[in-house]
Amino acid sequence: MPLMQVVVTLIVVGVLLWLVRFIPMAGSIKSILNAVVVIGVVLWLLNVFGLLPSLARIRVGSVLSWFSAAGA
Questions:
Q1: For 5-63, how does the pLDDT look when each residue is reduced to its tens digit (9 = 90+)?
Q2: Within the chain, what is the greatest distance between any pair of CA atoms?
Q3: Are 23 and 70 in contact (CB under 8 A)?
Q4: For residue 38, which phi and psi values (nearest 5 degrees)?
Q5: CA-to-CA distance for 13 and 18, rounded, in angstroms?
Q6: What long-range pairs does 25-30 form, CB within 8 A, spacing at least 24?
Q7: Which positions ≥6 away from 16 have C-beta within 8 Å?
Q8: Model confidence pLDDT, tens digit, residues 23-38
Q9: CA distances from 27 to 3, 16, 31, 40 (A)
Q10: Helices and strands, counts by H and E, the chain
Q11: CA-wise closest residue to 30 among 39, 19, 40, 41
Q12: Are the C-beta atoms of residues 34 and 6 closer than 8 Å to each other?
């Protein structure tokens, strides 16, 4: 992924996080939303720079089927 695309994505995410301040919502929900977005961006950056290569192997469908099989 080109560095310019990474920078533009980070700017867009930053602007969206800034705009969340203006949405009428409870402060605790805004904090949780910000934390989830920041954690997601950090994981994405680690994956983009190759520091977290195992992230590509995670599939939501296989995780959900594993949980349903384990609970049966």
A1: 889 999 999 999 898 888 898 888 889 988 999 998 988 888 888 887 776 666 666 55
A2: 47
A3: no
A4: -65, -45
A5: 9
A6: none
A7: 37
A8: 898 888 889 988 999 9
A9: 34, 16, 6, 20
A10: 3, 0
A11: 19
A12: no
Residue 71, CB-side half-sphere exposure with 13 Å CA sphere: 6
Token pair 């977290």 in the structure block, residue: 52
CA separation for the pair 61, 27 (Å, rounded): 33
Domain limits of the chain?
A: 3-71
Q: Within 13 A of 63's CA, how many CA atoms are on the CB side?
A: 5
Tokens of 59: 């599939």
Give the total residue count for the chain: 72
Residues 6 or more apart whose Cβ sits within 8 Å of residue 21: 30
Asked whether 55 and 46 are in contact (CB, 8 A), the reply is yes
